[in-house]
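Allow me, if you will, to draw on your knowledge of protein folds for a short while. I have a record of one protein: its chain in single-letter code and its fold written as C-alpha cells. Kindly check, if you would, that the fold set down in the C-alpha cells agrees with what the sequence suggests. Thank you for your consideration; the sequence and its C-alpha cells are set out here:
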Amino acid sequence: MAKARVIITLKKTIMDAQGQTAENALHNLGYRGVSNLRIGKVVEMELDGAPKEQLSAQLDKMCRELLANPIIEDFQFEIED
C-alpha cells in the first residue's frame, strides 16, 4: 500500500480571492510582513495494486479528470511506499 499526497493550487495567473482575503485579515491582525498569500488544498489517499510508475500515471490521470481543474489549477503529487 502506497500513500499519496496531492497539492492543488490556483495557477499564478488566476486571482486567489480567498488568499487575498486571508492576507488582508492577517494585515488587520498586525502581521504586516505577509504577502502573496495563496490558498490551495491537499488531498491524501492510499493506493495499492501497482508499481510506483503505474500509480504515478494513475494519480496524474485522477488529478486531470477529477481532483484538480487543469484550466485554473496546478497540481503536484508525491507517492510514498
